[in-house]
């Protein structure tokens, strides 16, 4: 229940971020807007499933042990939606890396890790859809699949944060006029990458050290899709300039050319 409530809370924050992005950057690249709005649609779909689960478990089926013991539809589709959203965000950062580093090899590593975690997350959802109840043998044994998925995604986050931080710091030392925006962007990448990476590592710790069933593992990761999209929107919306703000006179470049709005 706490996972459902937290998910709804984060969804409310996402709505505010999406509105800010929609209002401030109507001229962003089409593929970039498609990525953001498609990811938001997936998060909306997942929240609708969670609300349905709450109604069935605490409303329609209140007091029914059989209803409470069944693996909910929202938890069955959670790895699929979360893996798709996090994968889309990873591939977005892979594009940023290819622009900043001019290296297809580094971008390829990130893309490969992202595609791997997407495949594993889809496979996990298929396994959970087959499962009838929490006590199923498949549930008890599927913690390994959950752990592989979570560790792969966390590894991708760490690699992205390290690569982008390295190249942005090098650019900061080279171009004095753009130090303020580059430092701001570097700070945001470190903070958002740490937040999403730690969320995945915490969830995988539940599976590895506590040996919980895959159902509890999915409860621990119930809000990861919202966290991922939220971190991406923080980066994109950081390009907004506040008139009269403290940093306005210092900022001459609002972001990397890869994420700057185009006409």
UniProtKB/TrEMBL annotation:
Keyword Nucleotide-binding listed: no
Keywords (A to Z) from UniProt: Membrane, Transmembrane, Transmembrane helix
Domain DUF6534: 153-239
Cited InterPro entries: DUF6534
Transmembrane segments: 6-22, 34-51, 71-93, 105-123, 143-168, 188-210, 216-236
Keyword hit for Endoplasmic reticulum: no
Domain of life: Eukaryota
Name of the molecule in the record: DUF6534 domain-containing protein
């Amino acid at each position: 229940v706490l996972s459902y409530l937290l998910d709804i809370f984060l969804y409310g924050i996402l709505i505010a971020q999406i509105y800010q992005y929609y209002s401030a950057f109507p001229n962003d690249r089409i593929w970039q807007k498609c990525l953001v709005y498609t990811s938001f649609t997936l998060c909306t779909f997942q929240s609708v499933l969670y609300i349905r689960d709450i109604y069935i478990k605490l409303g329609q089926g209140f007091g029914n042990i059989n209803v409470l013991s069944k693996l909910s539809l929202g938890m069955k589709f959670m790895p699929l939606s979360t893996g798709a959203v996090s994968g889309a965000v990873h591939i977005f950062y892979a594009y940023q890396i290819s622009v900043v580093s001019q290296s297809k090899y580094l971008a390829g590593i990130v893309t490969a890790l992202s595609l791997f975690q997407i495949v594993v997350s889809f496979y996990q959802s298929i396994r959970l859809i087959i499962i009838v109840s929490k006590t199923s043998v498949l549930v008890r044994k599927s913690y390994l699949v959950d752990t592989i998925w979570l560790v792969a995604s966390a590894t991708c986050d760490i690699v992205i944060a390290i690569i982008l931080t390295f190249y942005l710091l090098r650019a900061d030392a080279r171009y004095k006029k753009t130090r303020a925006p580059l430092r701001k962007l570097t700070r945001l990448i470190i903070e958002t990458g740490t937040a999403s990476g730690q969320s995945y590592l915490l969830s995988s710790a539940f599976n590895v050290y506590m040996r919980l069933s895959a159902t509890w593992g999915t409860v621990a990761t119930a809000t990861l899709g919202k966290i991922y999209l939220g971190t991406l929107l923080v980066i994109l919306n950081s390009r907004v300039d506040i008139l009269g703000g403290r940093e306005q006179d210092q900022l001459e470049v609002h972001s990397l050319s890869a994420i700057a709005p185009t006409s």
